[in-house]
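From the pipeline queue, job 12 of 40. The input is one protein chain; the requested action is below.

Action: predict structure.
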Amino acid sequence: MEKNKKTRFSQAMIFIFMFGIVSLFSDMTHEGASSIRGAYLTLIGASAGTIGFISGLGELVGYSMRYVFGKLTDKTHQYWSMTIFGYILDVLAVPALALVGEHGWIAACALLVVQRMGKAIKKPAKDTIISFAASQEGVGKSFGIQELLDQIGAFLGPVLLYVVMLLKTDGTTFQIYSTCFAVLAIPGAITLIMLLFTKHKFPNPQDFEPEPKEYVPFKIKKPFIRYIIGISLFAFGFIDYSIIIMHISRNYTSIASGLAETSSIINSGTIPLLYAEAMLIDAIAALIFGYIYDKKGVKALIISTLISAPFPIFIFGFKSVYSVLFGIALWGVGMGAQESILKAAITSIVPKASRATGYGIFECSFGIFWFLGSWLLGVLYDVNISLMIAISVITQLSAIPLYWKASKNV
């Protein structure tokens, strides 16, 4: 009996790592695109308000529709079908950005929404599949490992684009960016190959977690409500990276901006490396806070929020490249905690039979408030940056009391 448990344990960890490799190449694709997305949209004619709106709309679609697909996944138990279809949309929409014209910001925005729809379809099923294996290994550690591999890909994607920019010295900036999006078709194809291989090896991942002795219906209780409100406040205040990179491309990539000492460090060619920095910090933070979650529960989210919340002050409040780099590092901490601890907590709160629905509710609320926050903060960027910074920091910190109350019941 002990021998069987040991074998099953090791198979669960193998599955977590294999799915982590899928996530690695997937993140190389869409996070590589994210590293230049804001600058690209600016280049082809989108305003700051438009970028904030479309970033928020993408997150709204990508998160709010997860409730629908989470319910559908729980009802049909088609975990793999939903995951595969979502991944196809997700990774194909990115290289398609290479096909938009020099004034094709509307088409580019539409493709970004399609990409987020792909994430909406796959995420509840994917997170539920991983949670089955994570139940054997420790949910914080398991989601931390997932996010670590995820963010290694998110680090390599921007680095890949940096190499492409170094090699492609001819052509306009638009042509160079288009080439970057086309190159991202390579990790996109590897993603789908690895995903199908993982499905072949583990066709029934739900078997990792034993069925409960009796059906336990999911009921929305006060701890869950407090947690949802807390993460919604966090999402509202967490400025989208598209706005950050737009700010940097406007203020730090031209000698004409008067920042001569920074222009040699940050320029159009090194912009992807800034996102790579954020993703590397994200990966490390996810693993660290995942382990902390297994020991301290939701209190780990309180710690990470205290560390990351001031990031807008350093990115938007100072005219220094070193301040920007520090702010991006803090942003990476917030993203790492968001992608590991938030998911781990849902696994702890919601029973197996309704877990995809639980993920859907959580991510729907998260997406709505990310949309509203991104839109408002994008508009405020052009009106009053100081007010934008204040709203962002205060809203994130206001989530902490709700995390604290929820932590007592998780």
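Job complete. The chain has a mean pLDDT of 81.
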